[in-house]
Amino acid sequence: ADKTGEPESAHWRYSLPRMVASPLREVKAIRIYPAEASEYGLRQLKLKAGEPIDATQARKIGEIIEARRVVWGDYRRQGKTWTATVQVLNVASGKQSAELSATAADWFEVCDQLAGKILRELGIKPTDAERDRMKIRFTTSPAALEFYSQGYALQAERKPFAEAERCERQAVAVDPRCAEAHAAL
């Protein structure tokens, strides 16, 4: 959920879950469902991406998509610093974790912190090789990341492709090695 109150930051509600899931995908002990599964669960509850949800709704989504665990949360900004907070819910038992928070000026650092905390909550210790793969970032440019995220949100919202394409092309112009922007194009 977007708790910034800033319309220009709303696009992160689409890319942030993907960015948190990305390093976790490198851990073989975890299976991350595709974004479409979460979107399906939200649609079944008549919720939109970015709307705040509670533990009851998170559990219901987990039941709908037949997940063992559900991770949900929110993000906000104070100055140039981002804070994201998540909780992990065991769908079968209904037991939820304490809030797990991460704060940094860099979104990748926020996501790395959250991934580490989620792994600890699940009691999973990645191998050295998995940890190395978890550190790989698809861009080193904050501007490219911002453009990519805007384009990804436009696609998720089913806006005209030309708008999303413009953002992804800007991401590539800023960082020609931005793999996600190339894939989006």
Outline the structure in words.
Helices cover 50% and strands 14% of the residues. By secondary structure, it is of the alpha+beta class. A hairpin with a 2-residue loop joins strand 1 and strand 2 (81-90). The longest helix is centred in the middle third of the chain and has 16 residues, at 107-122. The radius of gyration is 16 Å and the shape is globular. The two termini are 26 Å apart. 32% of the residues are buried.
Kindly summarize this structure in a few lines:
With 185 residues, this protein is α+β, with helices and mostly antiparallel strands.
Secondary-structure map:
Layout: H1 12-24, H2 35-44, H3 55-65, E1 69-78, E2 81-90, E3 100-104, H4 107-122, H5 128-134, H6 142-156, H7 161-174, H8 179-184
Antiparallel strand pairs: 1-2, 2-3
Helix pairs in contact: 1-4, 1-6, 2-3, 6-7
Rg (CA only): 16 Å
Strand content: 5-15%
| Largest sheet strand order | 1-2-3
Helix-and-strand structural type: alpha+beta
Describe the main β-sheet briefly.
3 strands, antiparallel
Percent in helix = 40-55%
- Total beta strand runs: 3
Q: Look at the structure and give the mean pLDDT.
A: 95
Order of helices and strands: HHHEEEHHHHH
Low-confidence stretches: none
Task: Choose one word for the global shape.
Answer: globular
Separate helix tally: 8
The CA-CA distance between the termini, in Å, is 26 Å
What descriptive keywords fit this protein?
185 residues, alpha+beta, 3-stranded antiparallel sheet, 8 helices
